[in-house]
Design goal:
about 15% strand, about 180 residues, alpha+beta
């Protein structure tokens, strides 16, 4: 499918972090589409809210009706969203590229911090930083690093500095992308 290029109005809808799960579900919908009721169940959101959001996306020509199922009474419309989308920086409200990046990255970072701290408090009630020359490590009074507390857990978090050669950094990046 060809790449969709967003207009300014579409960019505002596509970049709103609160719509991320809805947009993902619409892009992953089967060729016959997905109904508003199915979206509401999948996302754990009210039918009214999903109907409103899908209506906005349809009016902006982001989603389209993929099929209509005739039923007694009102027909069921099934929606799809073509993918991928390119959202040019120039059509957004961001004044700078830094603002453009921050609008997407900071809400995700805040969510990651919230989930990480909840998980960590379940494992250990006392946390702090260990400051040493050139390093800042998170740990407990038992000492850094937090490996002794979270060993065997699928939890990964770091505020430290990774000192990798450019070649090792590229290798790490390649391995993360293949996961």
């Amino acid at each position: 499918m060809p790449t969709q290029t967003a207009t300014a109005a579409q960019a505002a809808l596509l970049l709103d972090p609160r719509r991320r799960s809805l947009l993902s579900a619409l892009m992953a919908a089967p060729p016959a589409g997905i109904s508003v009721a199915e979206l509401a169940r999948e996302l754990g959101t009210s039918l009214r809210r999903i109907h409103y959001e899908v209506g906005k996306l349809e009016a902006a020509q982001i989603v389209q009706v993929a099929s209509v199922e005739p039923r007694a009474g009102r027909a069921v419309r099934r929606y799809r969203m073509p993918a991928p989308w390119f959202i040019p920086f120039e059509v957004t409200q961001a004044a700078t590229l830094e603002d453009f990046l921050a609008a997407q990255i900071l809400p995700r970072t805040a969510g990651m911090v919230r989930l990480s701290s909840q998980f960590m408090l379940e494992k250990q009630p006392e946390w702090g930083y260990w400051l040493r020359p050139d390093t800042l490590h998170l740990g407990s009074r038992g000492g850094p690093p937090m490996r002794h507390i979270l060993e065997g857990e699928p939890f990964v978090s770091s505020i430290g500095t990774a000192r990798l050669t450019p070649a090792r950094a590229l290798e790490l990046k390649r391995r993360l992308w293949t996961c």
